[in-house]
């Protein structure tokens, strides 16, 4: 079972969660918008892609568009949905933003379950168009998919990197750290926030959700429960909120470790114990990391400090040391 | 009419589930996501114990055990990270929720369990029909809520809890035993969660998803009720219960939870201080 295609599949999943964690970092890490509804956006993107690119004669009829058109459409639809969700919720701060995004994600999932005619309900969508599938033998496809996921991840990383070094990214972080100051400097904080929220939604729909759909091969609503949100969040917390690549590394560590456990051979009697391992690991990692290493493996300070001979002392922390170094 | 009675039962169970959550939110200032898993834990322990030693004793032992566990978790997991603020507490609570959820799956498996308790046959009372067991559940929920209200408003312990909730530092300076009060709040909150789990389990079924499916409703009721007053939470729970069950008359029953969340979002956007609080609620620092 521990064959190469298996690990290619595990890595693909790790990249999907990693991409989502990188985008969540733009929104939550730099923007301070603690979004507990990211699974809802992945769900919108995934269903939009599956329905746009699905065959018109399938049980759940799609529009039959080519896969790239499906991706573009999914990106546009998810960005629009994020805009609609962001418009009311971004007025709320802190825990209220958290609760409303959580509730919106649950509403999206319930609507997918209820709108059977459009989405297949709990039976889901089983015929998924995978790109380039006709050129390869099925046994080689996991590697093709890994390659596609790697390309998508590289794109997401470049986008996030570009954001982090732009004035736009600086504004985002400034608004998080000191909103009145950012406003007084003439920054349109509200517009930057909603643009970010919608933009993150768009990239999720364009890249994350389609790759996830190809990886899954079939869509059911239960995939997009809060479990997915918390998995992405845990990846980000492990890697380090605010750092540039932390989310990707954290998600990879989390997914590879928790999938590796499935390789252990057990009799069916103990299968449920094994199924419990992933949530157990996610929970323990969250608790332990927040207690002993709340900054994660890679911290924001590490990501944004300029290379200097010694770490900069905090301005007000130790005046004596400042005087010495000056 | 029938739906309103069902709504009252749903609402009073939600009130029991939310009261503990709100108590903890007011004193410790964070959203205790793992509260849902304490509900599920109470339901599972309840099923197992009541089958062994009978309903009353089993329920009491379950509540005591879960209350003790809650106090322990508060002391071991949450007190050390309290200084880092509400979001770290929140994510620690999410972590704890996962751990309990995993242990429930590992310990009890994923098959559905039911309490071996009969609610009795439905009796017609005018236009409505209720089973005696449902009335007992309603009465238990009402008594517990009344007891909690008396505890908070008529006893010295209750005054200490309210003092810690409104201003922890001031309470400490004035000689309120803050640590002891915190332990009591954790135990009370978890015990209430266990009771809610048992009642929910008796009325429906017990599955490992019980916690996740209830925590959003609890969040909704707690936020709608506003902070500061347990009566607001109770009123909000009853309103949510009645509206959810009454909505079944107009639209598909599958939309029941969606209705609750839509109410939550609309209220948060239009009136962020909650439905029933007069004073504007303090904004929690992110």
Structural overview:
The complex is a heterodimer of chains A (326) and B (286). With 326 residues, chain A is an all-alpha fold. Chain A has one domain: Orthogonal Bundle (ABC transporter involved in vitamin B12 uptake, BtuC). Chain A has 15 helices and no strands. In chain A, helix 1 (4-30) runs parallel beside helix 6 (141-164) and helix 10 packs across helix 11. The radius of gyration of chain A is 21 Å and the shape is globular. Residues 307-326 of chain A have low confidence and may be disordered. Chain B is mostly helical and 286 residues long. Chain B has a domain at 11-119 and 133-211. A two-stranded antiparallel sheet of chain B has the order 1-2. In chain B, strand 1 (123-125) and strand 2 (128-130) form a beta hairpin. In chain B, helix 2 packs antiparallel against helix 3 and helix 2 (35-53) crosses helix 8. Chain B is globular. Residues 278-286 of chain B have low confidence and may be disordered. The A-B interface holds A 32, 34, 88-89, 91-96, 98-100, 102-104, 106-107, 110-111, 113-114, 225-226, 230, 233, 237, 272-273, 275-280, 282-287, 290-291, 294 and B 31, 77, 80-81, 84, 86-88, 90-92, 94-103, 105-106, 109-110, 212, 216, 219-220, 223, 252, 254-255, 257-258, 261-262, 264-265, 268-269, 272, 283-286.
């Amino acid at each position: 079972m521990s064959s190469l295609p298996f690990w290619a599949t595990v890595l693909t999943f790790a990249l999907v969660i990693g991409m989502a964690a990188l985008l969540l970092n733009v929104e939550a890490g730099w923007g301070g918008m603690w979004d507990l509804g990211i699974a809802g956006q992945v769900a919108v993107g995934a269903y939009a892609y599956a329905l746009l690119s699905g065959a018109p004669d399938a049980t759940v009829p799609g529009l039959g568009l080519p896969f790239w058109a499906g991706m573009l459409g999914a990106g546009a639809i998810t960005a629009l949905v994020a805009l609609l969700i962001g418009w009311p919720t971004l007025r709320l701060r802190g825990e209220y933003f958290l609760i409303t995004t959580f509730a919106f994600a649950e509403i999206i999932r319930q609507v997918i379950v209820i709108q059977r005619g459009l989405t297949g309900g709990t039976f889901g969508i089983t015929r998924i168009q995978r790109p380039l599938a006709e050129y390869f033998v099925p046994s080689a496809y996991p590697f093709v998919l890994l390659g596609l996921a790697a390309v998508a991840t590289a794109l997401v990383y470049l986008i996030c990197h570009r954001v982090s070094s732009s004035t736009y990214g600086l504004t985002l972080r400034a608004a998080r750290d000191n909103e009145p100051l950012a406003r007084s400097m003439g920054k349109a904080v509200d517009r930057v926030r909603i643009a970010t929220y919608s933009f993150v939604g768009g990239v999720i729909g364009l890249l994350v959700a389609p790759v996830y759909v190809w990886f899954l091969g079939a869509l059911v609503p239960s995939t997009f429960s809060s479990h997915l949100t918390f998995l992405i969040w845990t990846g980000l917390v492990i890697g380090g909120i605010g750092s540039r690549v932390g989310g990707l590394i954290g998600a990879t560590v989390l997914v590879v470790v928790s999938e590796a456990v499935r390789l252990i051979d057990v009799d069916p009697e103990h299968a449920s114990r094994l199924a419990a391992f992933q949530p157990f690991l996610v929970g323990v990692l969250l608790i332990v990391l927040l207690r002993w290493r709340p900054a994660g493996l890679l911290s924001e300070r590490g990501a944004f400090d300029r290379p200097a001979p010694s770490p900069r002392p905090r301005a007000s922390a130790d005046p004596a040391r400042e005087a010495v170094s000056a | 009419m029938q739906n309103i009675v069902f709504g009252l039962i749903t609402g009073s169970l939600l009130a029991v589930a939310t009261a503990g959550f709100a108590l903890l939110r007011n004193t410790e200032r964070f959203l205790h996501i793992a509260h849902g898993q304490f509900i599920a834990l109470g339901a599972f322990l309840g099923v197992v114990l009541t089958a062994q030693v009978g309903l009353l004793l089993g329920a009491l032992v379950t509540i005591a055990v879960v209350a003790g566990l809650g106090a322990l978790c508060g002391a071991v997991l949450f007190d050390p990270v309290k200084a880092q603020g509400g979001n770290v507490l929140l994510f620690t609570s999410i972590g704890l929720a996962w751990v309990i959820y995993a242990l429930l799956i590992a310990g009890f498996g994923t098959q559905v369990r039911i309490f071996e308790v009969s609610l009795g046959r439905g009796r017609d009372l005018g236009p409505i029909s209720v089973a005696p067991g449902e009335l007992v559940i309603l009465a238990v929920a009402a008594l517990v809520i009344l007891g909690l209200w008396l505890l908070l408003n008529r006893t010295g312990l209750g005054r200490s809890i309210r003092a810690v909730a409104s201003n922890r530092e001031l309470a400490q300076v004035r000689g309120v035993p803050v640590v002891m009060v915190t332990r009591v709040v954790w135990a009370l909150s978890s015990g209430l969660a266990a009771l809610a789990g048992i009642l929910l389990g008796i009325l429906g079924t017990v599955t490992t998803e019980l916690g996740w499916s209830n925590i959003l409703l609890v969040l909704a009721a707690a936020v709608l009720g506003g902070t500061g007053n347990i009566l607001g939470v109770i009123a909000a729970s009853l309103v949510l219960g009645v509206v959810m069950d009454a909505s079944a008359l107009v639209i598909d029953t599958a939309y029941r939870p969606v209705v609750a969340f839509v109410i939550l979002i609309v209220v948060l956007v239009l009136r962020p201080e909650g439905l029933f609080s007069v004073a504007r609620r303090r904004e929690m620092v992110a």
